[in-house]
Write a structure and sequence with these properties.
Number of strands of chain B: 0
Oligomer: heterodimer
Largest sheet of chain B: none
Number of strands of chain A: 0
CATH superfamily of the largest domain in chain A: Winged helix-like DNA-binding domain superfamily/Winged helix DNA-binding domain
Structural class of chain A: mainly alpha
Largest interface: A-B, 49 and 38 residues
Shape of chain B: elongated
Bound molecules: zinc ion
Number of helices of chain A: 8
Distance between the termini of chain A: 51 Å
Shape of chain A: elongated
Helix content of chain A: 55-70%
CATH class of the largest domain in chain A: Mainly Alpha
CATH architecture of the largest domain in chain A: Orthogonal Bundle
Strand content of chain A: under 5%
Number of helices of chain B: 6
Strand content of chain B: under 5%
Distance between the termini of chain B: 72 Å
CATH topology of the largest domain in chain A: Arc Repressor Mutant, subunit A
Radius of gyration of chain A: 18 Å
């Protein structure tokens, strides 16, 4: 399909768009935390991909190549939004906040039973939005989009150990933050 | 193995990429340490919640709208070589710059 698209078959390209549009949209939305931005980025990613198809060598998966473009576009969008702050994959990696577990409360077996679907969604959204973009991105690609560690490293231009360390911290920070909501005691979140 | 050692292996443990030689040690620590057991369980729930969360999904009508906008752009603007573009590597540019 990629070869057909490369040869100029726009129908084949449309099939590729159809196949990967959801993944690209989710990735962009997770990074930017903004639906409209994610819609714009999804358009830009596929348009750029179409223009640069010749540069796709087939050394990596086509989806990883697209995700890489999506990550770059999303980070660029974040940079534009926060004009004073630089946003990069390296931002805030120094922080150890939440990387050392402090909350050892067990959760209810099904915390979602105690929250409506929209409350659950809001908690999950707010929690992941609080992570530094670099951590959020690694977590999104590895745990939500199921990219391998190597594919994530390639899409982000990071080393495998860097991906692993960010992923661990992202997972632990999310866990720590969700614990505040889901712990068995009825303590209000801090 | 203490809790810090365990934590360092947590992601490998989750991802099934842990060194088999360490697996017994990791499991032994997990059996004897309630804190780490809780961390493992709740981290697993954390990942599962995000995987199951559909609020970031692209609704079908929006997908259709986006796709047709993308294809319109691709068909009208096309590939870069079809556009009139200035190639910085060509001689005329150098002569332009010298003026
Ligand atoms: Zn322990």
């Amino acid at each position: 399909m990629v070869e057909l698209a490369k040869a100029g078959d726009t129908g084949a390209f449309e099939t590729l768009v159809r196949k990967y549009e959801r993944q690209i949209f989710r990735t962009a939305q997770h990074i930017t935390q903004n639906r409209e931005d994610a819609e714009d980025i999804t358009q830009d990613v596929f348009f750029k991909a179409f223009q640069k198809l010749d540069q796709f060598q087939g050394n990596s998966k086509f989806s990883t190549w697209l995700v890489r473009i999506a990550v770059n576009e999303s980070l660029m969008r974040l940079r534009k939004r926060k004009t004073s702050k630089t946003v990069s994959m390296d931002q805030d990696v120094e922080t150890d906040e939440g990387s050392i577990p402090r909350d050892f409360a067990e959760w209810r077996p099904n915390p979602e039973q105690n929250f409506s679907q929209s409350e659950m969604g809001e908690i999950l959204r707010k929690t992941i939005a609080g992570l530094p973009p670099g951590f959020r991105t690694v977590f999104t690609l590895r745990d939500i989009e199921n990219l391998s560690t190597e594919e994530t490293a390639e899409a982000l231009g990071l080393s495998v150990p860097a991906v692993k360390s960010r992923l661990l911290r992202a997972r632990l920070q999310l866990r720590e933050r969700l614990s505040r909501y889901f712990r068995k005691t009825n303590e209000a979140p801090k | 193995m203490n809790c810090t050692d365990f934590l360092a292996k947590l992601s490998d443990f989750f991802d099934g990429t842990i060194d088999p030689a360490l697996l017994d040690e990791v499991k032994a620590h997990l059996c004897s340490c309630h804190h780490c057991e809780v961390v493992v369980d709740t981290t697993r729930h954390t990942i599962d919640f995000y995987r199951a969360d559909q609020q970031f999904d692209l609704p079908e009508p929006v997908a259709d709208k986006l796709r047709s906008a993308i294809m319109d752009r691709c068909r009208t603007l096309g590939k870069p070589e079809k556009q009139i573009r200035f190639n910085p590597g060509t001689a005329p540019r150098e002569s332009l710059e010298k003026h």
